[in-house]
Structures are given as C-alpha cells and as structure tokens.
Amino acid sequence: MSETTSLYIIRHGKTMFNTIGRTQGWSDTPLTNEGEKVIQQLGIGLKDVPFKEAYSSDSGRAIQTAKIILREHRNGANIPYATDSRIREWCFGSLDGGYDGELWGVVPRILAFKNYDDMMNNRISYRDLADAIMKADTADWAEPYEKIRERVWNGFEDIAHRIEKNGGGNVMIVSHGLTISFLLSLIDSSYPMQINLENGSVTKLTYKNGTFKIEYVNNTTFIEEGKKQG
C-alpha cells in the first residue's frame, strides 16, 4: 500500500546577505555562523522524519543548508540527495546583490504605490511583481512571470510525482522564501503573498494524483525541538 506523499519544504538558513539586508535572488552568500547553528537545530528536530529523498536548489546557500540537515539526520548518509535548478529563487537581475531598500523602493513605485507597505496592503499579484521586477532590471536578466511559473511548478511537481510513483513517502526540499511563497499561491490562489518566511522554517505539502494540499506554512517547531534536544 502506498504511503502519503509529503514534501517538507525548507527555507535555507540565514546568510550574510540576509543579515545585512541585501537581495540575493540568483546571487549567493554562505550561511552565517548563527545561520548554521539554527539549521543544525532544525536537522536535529527533523532527524527522525523518514525521508526517502532530499533535494535543494543549486544555490550554494540551499546546498549548505541541505548538507547540514542530512548530517544531523539519523539516516542522512543513506538518503539520496540531488540539486534542481528549477526550485532556485527568483532572479532580480541588476537588483541582485543590492540592498533590499533598492528593490522594495523601486518596485512599489513602478506599480504606482507609495511604498512597500502600501503595495502589500493592496495585495498585488505575483504576475504584477514579476512584471515590475523586469521593468526595474536594467540588465535584462530577470525572468518573465510565465517562465518563473513554469520552472517553479514543474520543479516541485516533478519531485512530488516521482515520489508518489515510487510508493509515496517523505521528501526534504530546501528552497527559497519568495519561491516557496509563490508555489503556495499556485496551489491556492487565495493564499496571501508571504515573502517573509523564516530562515529554516518548514512548509509541508501533501500530494496525491497531481494535486497539492497545504498542510502548514512557516513552521519553526522543528527548530525549537532541536534546541531542546541539542
């Protein structure tokens, strides 16, 4: 009998750019010492979850996060692990690596809002966000909405389908804040834009016959459990 297919989707640990308020996107920085410590606690909290497979995006911060978690897992050495470029973060083009205030200063103005809070209170769509980022990007590197939607959906759906086809079970996936939030909106269009997921938080989805179900979002209880055990 097949098991339930469950995706434990984790936002990578806190990085240097996260700490100083710079936009990462496709640029990359390593986890800070504190970021590594929190992910180690997360790994301890997840050590008894029987993962069949593990994945991360191909960004260094996601790979580093996945390896720390697997190192702490009871069976980590035997869990197959691979990277998938489709589940990486959105690309912010010429705004990658700049301070968050630059990105979230210009994007609201492009969309005719006074500031970031005004924009978020008006519940813009992810399509609007992607279009505004493309307009703000002077290097012409940012991806159009349809390309982001296709790669993110196909990346997570392919992983879920593969696990289900092989009898179901749990899979660990390390991805990124905006990408995870965007995926939730593709599953449930009424889901609010939530781009401030905690580093190391777990968002759990189940998957059956081509349909995702959101079980919980931005869960930090595994970190708290790891602190107690550590």
From TrEMBL:
One of its GO terms (cellular component) is cytosol. GO terms for biological process: negative regulation of glycolytic process; regulation of pentose-phosphate shunt. It comes from the Bacteria. This is Phosphoglycerate mutase. The active site is at residues 12, 89. GO terms for molecular function: fructose-2,6-bisphosphate 2-phosphatase activity. CDD domains: HP_PGM_like. InterPro entries: His_Pase_superF_clade-1, His_PPase_superfam, Phosphoglycerate_Mutase. The keyword Hydrolase applies. Substrate binds at residues 11-18, 61. The keyword Hydrolase applies. PANTHER family: FRUCTOSE-2,6-BISPHOSPHATASE TIGAR. Keywords: Hydrolase. The record marks 176 as: Transition state stabilizer.
